[in-house]
Amino acid sequence: MTSPPRKLAPVFSRPPAVADPAKAERARVAMGWLHTAHFLTSAPQLEHLPTLDLPEIAFVGRSNAGKSTAINTLTQQTRLAFASKTPGRTQHINLFGVGKQKVDDAVLADLPGYGYAAVPKEAKLRWQRVMGNYLMTRETLRGVVLMCDPRHGMTELDEILLDVIRPRVAEGLKFLVLLTKSDKLTRSEGAKVLSITRLQAGGGEVKLFSALKKQGVDEAAELLWRWVHPETQPASE
Ligand SMILES: Nc1nc2c(ncn2[C@@H]2O[C@H](COP(=O)(O)OP(=O)(O)OP(=O)(O)O)[C@@H](O)[C@H]2O)c(=O)[nH]1
Fold this sequence. Notes:
Blueprint: H1 21-34, E1 38-43, E2 56-61, H2 67-75, E3 93-98, E4 106-110, H3 121-137, E5 141-148, H4 156-170, E6 174-179, H5 187-201, E7 205-208, H6 217-228
Parallel strand pairs: 2-4, 2-5, 5-6, 6-7
Antiparallel strand pairs: 1-3, 3-4
Helix pairs in contact: 1-6
The structure holds guanosine-5'-triphosphate (GTP).
Pfam families: MMR_HSR1 (PF01926)
Organism: Variovorax humicola
Function: Necessary for normal cell division and for the maintenance of normal septation.
């Protein structure tokens, strides 16, 4: 005797996430733009830094926070900013031009990492002065990207830096906190540090970012693109 055909259990599966094509296109444009990044110049002091009549985006952060790696990831280049395993290696302000069709329309500024314990106190104070002056006086500064290692959270120096830029933020300076190396966090640790940092940042954008897992890369790239090209702001935002 043949057994009756078994009834198949209905399959309740979540429909596949529909990618937003407009969002994907914006990320593609932003990543293509950042990929044009090329070295312009390097200066040990603020007074040696040329004034370029272009909006500038500064990358700052505690030494070893993952700043060089993040710049290389955002520009999809392997050695644009020198990523080193030795903290405190970035000693100059490095400027990179970005722009399509070989015409730069913005500058990326990689500032020296701060807070590395082995750097002599005098050198530390000198760099804090250089950075403070840069952040307060650089007229072309359009936005600041602060990199933090979320396992250490925002340090005192990070908070001082935010205090330094706050008056300029009130006047329209953009800022973004990237919580780097997010691949080292569990999902719940990531959510926790994200909400704590959002409170500390007092209204600025905060995103989890991993160069290793490519988390947050498209979103950060798109934000930087919009800082420089505000006319392309999506209507819904
Ligand atoms: N797991 C993981 N490690 C990372 C990531 N980003 C950076 N790192 C590691 O963190 C260390 C420091 O990264 P860097 O990019 O050199 O840091 P930096 O902030 O530029 O350092 P300074 O030159 O001292 O200012 C390196 O060993 C990187 O490989 C990431 O997304 N995930």
